[in-house]
Design a protein that fits this description.
Helix content is 54%, strand content 12%. It is an alpha+beta fold. It folds into three domains: 89 residues, no CATH class; 113 residues, no CATH class; 108 residues. The protein has a five-stranded antiparallel sheet with strand order 4-3-2-1-5.
């Protein structure tokens, strides 16, 4: 912190403090994590000195728990009264402003990267949160901090251009970015298996999200299985078994988005299905046609082709066999 406190921009200090918070929090017990942060703040206060004051100032802004932020604020005031000097960036701490928000994601809705660009007193920087959307609330798989923003955007643009329409880079309202990242960040604190890249920077991401506008209410699809319901009404008994299995799978694997189709979802379903592959292929082709009928311009041709190819890959040379749905018991129980 001695080096960081003399910089004109708090970003280096914020990054250091975010990584420190990750080391202090084991993630198993929120109460223990809070206690660990408060104990460290007390230790830093007893050590005293200008570098410790700088660190405590950042912890007062980044700590995920309100009690830890309050403790840090109190400790910082105590050190100032003892004669310690604030870092040169103190007036800029907590005052980053959002510049632009973008998403880069696949057209199926499996995953997205949310790129938020922020201003700073010296350096504009971006935080990129990679979110798996098949997890309820979204699941953060990685967080990247970069000041090479143009390079990152060019890379995303290149991948989108080379994907044949399977990926898109789009500018979105800050409220939408806030909704995606807040939900995914909250889920990361409830999850057990969180990537180190996420743990290291999620405190910084959380602080930055406070300067984004409040999320708009998200429009909820009140019938995420309407297409499957419609197909079930006139389905044969074998196809009805497949559709019910797909419904259960969608509720468990895909955060309730039963009607949604994607190559990865099809392949995951194929790994769990022990019944007739021909029936599954027919059902999913019918579901794909239902999507076409509902939104004729919904998916680019490359996506249509990829879905057809995935069906052929997932269920090659299928023959009729008895439908085995015993795996549904374990899936429902989990």
């Amino acid at each position: 912190m001695r080096r960081f406190r003399n910089e004109p921009d708090p970003l280096g200090s914020e990054t250091y403090a975010s990584q420190l918070i990750a080391e202090l929090m084991n993630g198993d017990d929120p109460a223990q994590d809070e206690a660990a942060l408060i104990r460290f703040i007390e230790y830093a206060t007893e050590r005293g000195g200008d570098p410790m004051l700088a660190l405590i100032r950042v912890l007062a802004d980044l700590a995920p728990m309100p009690a830890a932020r309050i403790a840090a604020e109190y400790a910082a005031n105590r050190l100032v009264r003892a004669g310690c000097s604030d870092p040169r960036w103190i007036d800029d701490l907590g005052h980053a402003r959002v510049v632009k928000t973008r998403t880069f994601g696949d057209v199926y809705g499996d995953q997205t990267a949310v790129l938020c660009t922020f201003s700073g007193p010296v350096r504009t920087h971006a935080l990129i949160g990679f979110v798996n959307l098949t997890h309820p609330g979204g699941f953060l798989t990685d967080i990247i901090l970069t000041t090479a923003i143009d390079k990152a955007i060019v890379s995303f643009e290149k991948h989108a251009a080379e994907s044949g329409g399977l990926s898109r880079l789009e500018e979105i309202p800050p409220e939408q970015a806030s909704a995606i990242l807040r939900a995914a960040l909250a889920e990361s604190y409830r999850a057990v298996d969180v990537a180190d890249e996420v743990r290291q920077l999620r405190a910084l991401l959380g602080a930055r999200l406070t300067v984004l506008p409040s999320p708009r209410p998200v429009a909820v699809d009140d019938a995420p299985d309407r297409l499957v319901n419609a197909l079930t009404e006139n389905a044969s008994s074998r196809h009805r078994d497949v559709l019910e299995a797909w419904r259960t799978f969608g509720n468990s694997y895909d955060a309730g988005r039963v009607d949604r189709l994607s190559p990865s979802k099809m392949l995951a379903f194929a790994e769990m299905w022990n019944g007739d592959g021909t029936d599954v292929a027919e059902v999913l082709r019918n579901l794909l046609q239902s999507h076409r009928d509902e939104t004729p311009d919904g998916l680019p041709p490359a996506a249509e082709a990829e879905l057809d190819e995935t069906l052929a890959e997932a269920f090659p040379g299928a023959v009729h066999a008895a439908v085995d749905t015993s795996w549904l018991d374990d899936l429902t129980a989990s």
